[in-house]
Design brief:
Helix content: 25-40%
CATH topology of the largest domain: Rossmann fold
Number of helices: 9
Strand content: 25-35%
Distance between the termini: 40 Å
Oligomer: single chain
Largest sheet: 8 strands, mixed
């Protein structure tokens, strides 16, 4: 824990924090978001507006009377996000660790600030292929980070994992760099990245690891987005058992629905947010191709999946990369 406040750059935002963040430092800059240690009294007042739980709820969310958002992960921490998104207060609970605090703070919690700024984050993993980025979108457990790690094992760099922040420019959409890390289960990390890669458990209730990545494996500047791949669900897999990998374009309403489903934050349902979400999806679809990627959920299939994605991008596959992720 730092004793002085420092500035950081993440998802295209400037953050100011006394808590050490695992992301690049920024020079003197006016912060978009300030991260502040909240007092017990302030959180006690906030909890007075939250209905009592049944003692079995892992996560609590409540919009308070003044527009502040209250968030709590039982036994770990609680947060207050101001209505304008520019101030986040945090308070540790008994089981919090530095790693778990930064994971939730720089993901779910920060997404509320992003929505207040009109930014619509997506749930996915993005890798850099040559001069452009490709994103893998899907639900929790669909294998986004695993596929990103398979591409990383081939030498492609990670732009962001889990939360995807996009910015529209005159030259198209750009992906803003995220936290330089990737989240994987231990067996997947060992298989794809080797036994020497160390990580920290995301929280005490899971074995999933947060693995820091160095500059050689990440991207530090915004990069153009050239394609999005929606990972298949279980129903798609059952219908495609005869095909090892299938990539098909998604058009109009099907692509639109998948982008809405891939929203990182599904808690905020106010009319203004939903209108902005629909406009964002419409503009993105007009500029970036969206495809469905269906494949069997097996680590042994990942070389074939990577080859199929690279071929779809018009790029030759790298046989050396296949060896890097094979048993």
């Amino acid at each position: 824990m730092s004793t002085s406040r420092a500035s950081y750059r993440l998802y295209g935002l400037a953050l100011e924090s006394a808590f050490d963040l695992p992301c690049p430092h920024a020079g003197p800059v006016q912060p978009d978001v300030r991260l502040i240690l909240g007092s017990a009294a302030r959180f006690a007042r906030a909890r007075s507006e939250v209905p009592p739980d049944n003692g079995r709820e892992w996560f609590r969310y409540r919009r308070l009377g003044d527009g502040t958002t209250y968030l709590r992960w039982t036994g770990l921490f609680e947060f207050l996000v101001s209505a304008d998104g520019r101030r986040i207060q945090y308070r540790r609970l008994e089981h919090a660790t530095d790693e778990s605090l930064s994971v939730y703070l720089l993901g779910t919690v920060l997404s509320f600030s992003m929505l207040a700024f009109g930014i619509e984050p997506l749930h996915g993993t993005v890798v850099l292929v040559d001069d452009g980025a490709i994103g893998f979108l899907g639900d929790c457990g669909d294998g986004k980070s695993t596929l990103g790690a398979a591409m990383l094992a081939r030498g492609f760099r990670i732009v962001t994992d889990d939360l995807v922040a996009l910015r529209e420019t005159e030259n198209g959409w750009q992906v803003q760099p995220g936290v330089p890390r990737i989240k994987l289960f231990p067996s997947v990390a060992r298989r794809l990245l080797g036994r020497g890669r160390c990580g920290t458990r995301m929280n005490p209730g899971t074995t999933k690891l947060v693995l820091p990545l160095d500059k050689a494996h990440t991207v530090g500047t915004a990069v153009p987005l050239k394609a999005l791949y929606v990972l298949s669900n279980a129903g798609d897999e059952r219908r495609s058992r005869t095909a090892r990998v299938r990539i098909t374009p998604l058009f109009s309403q099907h692509a639109f629905v998948e982008l809405i489903r891939a929203s990182f934050n599904v808690l905020v349902l106010e009319k203004d947010r939903l209108a902005n979400q629909f406009q964002f999806a419409s503009r993105l679809l007009a500029a970036v191709p969206v495809r469905r990627l269906v494949y069997r959920r097996s680590l042994s299939e990942l070389p074939t999946v990577c080859n199929a994605v690279l071929s779809d991008l018009g790029r030759e596959s790298d046989a050396t990369g296949c060896n890097a992720i094979s048993a």
